[in-house]
Amino acid sequence: MALRIVIGLVLTAIAAVVAGRRLWWLYRLGRSGQPAPERIEAVRSHVGRDAEVQATEVFGQRKLLKWTVPGVAHALTFWGFIVLILTIIEAYGALFSKHFAIPLIGTWAWVGFGEDLFAVGVLVGIATFTVIRLRNNPEREGRASRFSGSHNGAAWLVLAGIFLVVATLLIYRGAQINTGDFPYPRGAFASQILGHWLHPAGSANAGIETTFILAQLAVILGFGIFVTYSKHLHIAIAPLNVLFSRRPNALGALEPMWSNGKVLDFEEADPDTDIFGLGKIEDLTWKGMLDLGTCTECGRCQSQCPAWATGKPLSPKMLILDLRDHAFAKAPYLLAGSDEAREALPDAVKAEAERPLVGDEAANGVIDPDVLWSCTNCGACVEECPVDIEHIDHIAGLRRHQVLIESAFPAEASTMLKNLENKGNPWGMGGDKRLEWISELDFEVPVVDGQIGDTEYLFWVGCAGALEDRAKKTTKAIAQLLHTAGVSFAVLGPAETCTGDPARRMGNEFVYSMLAQQNVETLNEAGLGQPGKKIVASCPHCFNTIANEYPQLGGNYEVIHHTQLLARLVSEGKLTPVNPIEEKITYHDPCFLGRHNRVFTPPREIMEQVPGVQAQEMHRCKERGFCCGAGGARMWMEERIGKRINTERIEEALGTDPDTISTGCPYCMVMLGDAIAAKKSSGEAKESLEVIDVAQLLVRSVATDPQASESEAQPPAV
Ligand code: SF4
Ligand code: SF4
User: Fold this and answer.
1) How much distance in Å is there from the Cα of 301 to the middle of ligand 1?
2) Which residue owns the Cα nearest ligand 2 atom 3?
3) According to the 3-state scheme, what is the secondary structure of 424-485?
4) For ligand 1, what atom is nearest to the CA of residue 627?
């Protein structure tokens, strides 16, 4: 007895020292990041919400369960380990007393049953993981495997470790039944089976009991140490990462540029002391560092990433892992207390500290520029990540530093940035052109001159909607429908400039701030911040920027997307689709409308109301919608690597054999339209196939003359 106490306590002490040192090191590394006072404040001021998030996301495993089979397997393992805390207490108790039982509940049959039930649940969970990993073997599946690029050896070790935890547990409990030391008279069904099997061993059961109690503790303690050195660190820190993540998630708005715990003010910024994006790993906040340590390497993000799916070098998982490996390798440098200590570090550490965060192979960069600039900001990675890692924020931070400090970005995007600065739109057209579409309508559209007055809606047309030929058709359809429904609306005309979205998503926060401040001033002067005044935007990027990002600059407005307003007008009977459109139509979810802003239903409701329409969903739709390739300012960059993202999307759409593809975004219209044109010229798509906005579909059905074009549609007989 004394020996097993000594061995058990010595093992515990060793594990506590080894794991404790590692945790202290990780804590110091996290603390070497920049302050993030807004994250602490958000948690302090939303205690109820955060408790709910912990209950649903962590304990309830909500995001994991979106993938049913691996989700259930993970939930069984997670809940199993929580219940098995009781068995760890029992194992320690058994070191000191052969007849140990947890006070009060330690002999209740249902407690013994619960422990065994969850132990078996853990075995089912790891058996499922084994099958999943064998079926997704990256050596066989290559890029198609979500585990491609993960540390798979460590994952197998963890599965083996978990198996040993449960196996040693059930064996010592089985032996305890035979020695009479088992605290539960009934209920522990799995232990009883093991006891039955071990019964023939007779008096040897006493030795088996002692050996496997110690083995159980050794496995748990070894597992505990391994956790602190592996991706399974997420067991300890995922709840913290979830707690301090942006709510409801890191989609929608980009974060403002933080420097030393404050939002960077370009007018007062000091190039020597301020931080401009993510130029060194230590420019990450402690929350950013926490993100890196929390990644479970599950590859869910990678499996949904359009860049990865089309053969580009970007994988959101590997981006996080590369940053994490670099942070760990540079850690001795970051944690060295003085210049002398840094000087004394091994050359390999000093070389790691010198590596640029972004740079090609020749520059030995941590992240290749092709990785960085492949991102479309589609948000699929953030949506899928079960531990709330904020990939887009990291990508934006890296881009901001590249653009603002290094002036290093895809050359073809520089024209767009110049046009934004000089002309307020990406095409460099004159402001007067923004009114041309109005002259093609047969009714007046008021242009705001100063105040919006009694008008209810400001129609935010957007640069594409005003200047790009395909998008102009949508603009005219929306104006026609609003006019038909008797909605009072006006436009800004030449006073409207780009919201700044392409500049911001490129990383040029300076140009974004300039445009955004100008727009906020215009909108405030027009009275849009007042109760009852609303903005309807046709472009999801404008919608996202005005609704979610302008509040960072003091612009708080009620903003809706045109599909939301049109769906409401249809449901209120102010627009009545009457003309049948006998077509198979598949709807493409724009990322900045759907995933970023959760507007999934209104466009579909509109389609449902149009007689004759047979709506068919693509396999990847709604939360799992697949990007068109234009977001993240990719619209303004060449797509030189891999398959074109718009081609991939159109091929999926063609799989539904549609007559028409509908959407709700001018960027998507352009990208999908281009891909359709290419498919038509190769004979893979029928000549009549077109991509239209849902508003165009509606105006065709609402028009009394079904042959009328969008701009000629007449009010319906209602
Ligand atoms: S935002 Fe989209 S493109 Fe960018 S890394 Fe995430 S999934 Fe990939
Ligand atoms: S970033 Fe999130 S989704 Fe991607 S591998 Fe890591 S934990 Fe999984």
Assistant:
1) 8
2) 385
3) CCCCCCCHHHHHHHHHCCCCCCCECECECCCCCEEEECCHHHHHCHHHHHHHHHHHHHHHHH
4) 2
